[in-house]
Amino acid sequence: MCLPAAAFPYPILQSVIEKEMNNEDKPLDTPENDTDKLIAILGLTNNIREAGYILPDGRLLHLQRSNCFKRKNHLDVLKLLPHFFGKEHSIIDTDMIAFMAKEQLVRFCIDGKIHTAVKPTSEQLRKIYSVLAYRSNPFEIILSNASGMTLAQHTVSGPNMSTLVNIFKDYAPEAQGRFSEDEFCIEQNEKFFNLIFRPTMKNVGRINKKSKMIKMNPLFKAATPLFMRLIQQAEEELEE
Length: 240
Prior knowledge:
Elements: H1 11-23, H2 34-42, E1 44-45, E2 51-54, E3 60-62, H3 74-78, H4 93-103, E4 106-109, E5 113-116, H5 122-132, E6 139-144, E7 150-156, H6 161-167, E8 184-188, E9 192-197, E10 202-208, E11 214-216, H7 224-239
């Protein structure tokens, strides 16, 4: 027989029973973060030819890369997550890179590409080494930051661990500030020089021509020296 609430002599026991009753329909293993959600949807694999991302613990996310009917590309993965539904613009590479940085994922393609957005964990580094060390085909390693700026690009073939460690030293604070000029351009009007980040075509910085006051998007503040260098180049071209 079910007793009314008032019949429970111990309020603490009553609250525990009510909590259990309210949670009975909830799944026991609800994914807590986006990586866990993707694992629940896509699963894991030990086959590097089927993998698309290396997780922080070194495991491989299964993208069914060899199945032409079910295979997913790296951008498709983001579309599986609820908070990417209804975005004002289609998902682009910079969205993926920001997601990689947040979840600490390494983008991986057995055809010859590894892409990072933060410094790899030791487990990811060991996985990268185990994949590349005994392969003769060249791999391109791209290092980005969370904003999508390219920090460095390297091409390696059968690298040793020391080579890989040195490559990822580009994430050290003292190495920051070196960016690809190809990803930026200068636009100007009567009052301002504007720094445009090409992958998103967004204005990420500007300098008042008269006062020389500079304003940078906080995410792109490290690109200030590059901005100044591009302005100098633009002014020199005008003088010629």
